[in-house]
Amino acid sequence: MTAAIEPHPALAPLLAFIGTWEGEGEGEYPTIAPFRYRERLSFEQVGKPFLTYEQRTWSVTNGAPMHRECGYLRIIPDTSPPVVEFIIAQPTGIAEVAEGTLADGVVDVSTTTTGCTATAVPVSGVRRRLWLEDAALHYELSMATPGTIDARHLAARLDRIDRP
User: What residue ranges do the domains of the chain occupy?
Assistant: First the structure.
């Protein structure tokens, strides 16, 4: 029998985010029609100063898969306010390295580096804000592409469905 892994002490400000969350969101962007989606997102801890992150979305109308991404939410110990880094890979050929802070329970990060494969839709910047309110995980994502200004792209409210 394996003993439970204790969270790294640096994760204290992020412990409330750990678990699996599910709910609905809305998407929009100047170059596409607005849409709705269902989402499942999870943060897990492994005893190190980071959380693993996995997300997937599917269509509200027909259940077809829409998007997936995975990565890590890192917290840098002994910084005030806590510095966080979000590293995310997407199957669409985009990789994000984002940095920011965790202040007043809000994770607020912006990309410092965005890598795109030759076949990916170019993305020049992403900002993500995540926070807990009324026992739900909320987030907003804005995005910039060459030729399109930074604009809101996604917003969702997710309820906890599992907590380790």
Answer: 9-162
Q: pTM of the full predicted structure? A: 0.93
Percentages of the chain per state (helix, strand, coil), in multiples of 5: 5, 65, 30
pLDDT, tens only, 105-157? 999 999 999 999 999 999 999 999 999 999 999 999 999 998 888 999 999 99
140 Cβ contact partners less than 8 Å away, ≥ 6 residues apart: 128, 129, 152, 154, 155
How far apart, in Å, are the Cα atoms of 138 and each of 5, 117, 134?
27, 29, 10
Question: Which two structure tokens, joined as six digits, stand for 102?
Answer: 């965790």
CATH 2.40.128.20 fits 9-162, yes or no: yes
**Residue corresponding to tokens 């607020």:** 108
